[in-house]
Amino acid sequence: MPRACISHGGCDIGARDKPSPRLNVALRSPSSSLNSVHCLDSVHLSHRFHTLYANLSSPVGPSLNSPHQAVCMQNSTLSASTLFDLIRPRSDFSRLTKPAKLQLATFATLAALGFSALWGAAAGSCVPALAVGNLVKVPLVLLLSALTAAPLGVVAWKLLGEETSVTDLVLAHARGLLAGALLLGTLVPIVALYYHSSRFAGPLLADATAIASLAVGVLVFVRLALKAPGNHNPTVRIAVPSLMVVLQGAAMLQLIALASPILPDPTMFREGVDGLVKTSSAEAP
Fold it and tell me: Comparing C-alpha atoms, which of 266, 254, 261 is closest to residue 131?
């Protein structure tokens, strides 16, 4: 039976007169083999070119929402761009595997500890010994307070939400820590400047930056927990992160009291809960 030869960009595809779902590439001569290889290479290069052009022309860069980008994210090394992806609210890591999410959570936590150490050194820069000590004390306060709140939050998250994943909660918590600590890191120069130039404004600015970073971290953590896949009950999504925030704040107060002095000048947080009670009782008529 005669065969009809279809030519497509130098590739000869043979097909019988009777329709068939399969198309066989004609390999009758070495020249046709070379043509088929060149055809496949050109199609592959064209696909790579269009993919690269789409990524470069996108205003926000490559998206992490597609499975292909998720696989690339799992196999790529962590870098500064990963750091910005973690604090970007539109970044979606739900397609990653659990080990990849835990790797990102570890990376975010370590980066948060580094930024908090820089802030501690800037806040205690008037006293060299205090600045060196803050490189260890401030990250320890942040890490231990987070670890204090994690067990109850993980248990409540898993018990109240049957389809929720603990790794999603851990990653959201780590991204919240990173967002708050990154704010501290960006304010390091102004904190150091005011501590060296104003005895009145230096302690106030240090306390204000610390409170602002806590607010940013809480906001990012709760927002990411609300977007986590799994249980769609809004009460669980709000109650569990709020409980973790309260526990971490209570633990942070006492850890600051144990690690004091952190700032050169005394503040209301130096004695923990007792200092807050004394301050409120002194202001009462």
Answer: 261
Pair 232, 138 in one domain: yes
Neighbouring C-beta atoms of residue 276, cutoff 10 Å: 13
Contact call for residues 8 and 39 (beta carbons, < 8 A) = yes
Residues 133, 231 within the same domain = yes
Q: How far is CA 21 from the centre of its chain?
A: 47
- The answer on pLDDT for 100 being more than 70 is yes
52 and 40 within one domain: yes
Position 162 scores a pLDDT of: 61
Domain boundary among 29, 55, 82: 82
For the chain, the first-to-last Cα distance in angstroms comes to 107
Structural domain range at position 224: 86-283
- 29-33, 68-72, 170-174, 216-220: which range is least confident on average? 68-72
Domain boundary among 54, 82, 110: 82
* Domain co-membership, 144 together with 214: yes
**Given 3-state DSSP classes, what are the helix, strand and coil percentages for the chain, each rounded to the nearest 5?**
70, 5, 25
Nearest to 249, CA basis, from 157, 140, 142: 142
Q: Are residues 273 and 205 in the same domain?
A: yes
Helix (H, G, I), strand (E, B) or coil at 159: helix
- Give yes or no for residue 75 having a pLDDT over 80: no
192 has pLDDT over 80: yes
Residue 8 host element (H or E): strand 3-8
pTM, rounded to two decimals = 0.69
The total of structural domains in the chain comes to 2
- Rounded to whole angstroms, how far apart are CA atoms 64 and 81? 13
Distance of CA 238 to the CA centre of its chain: 19
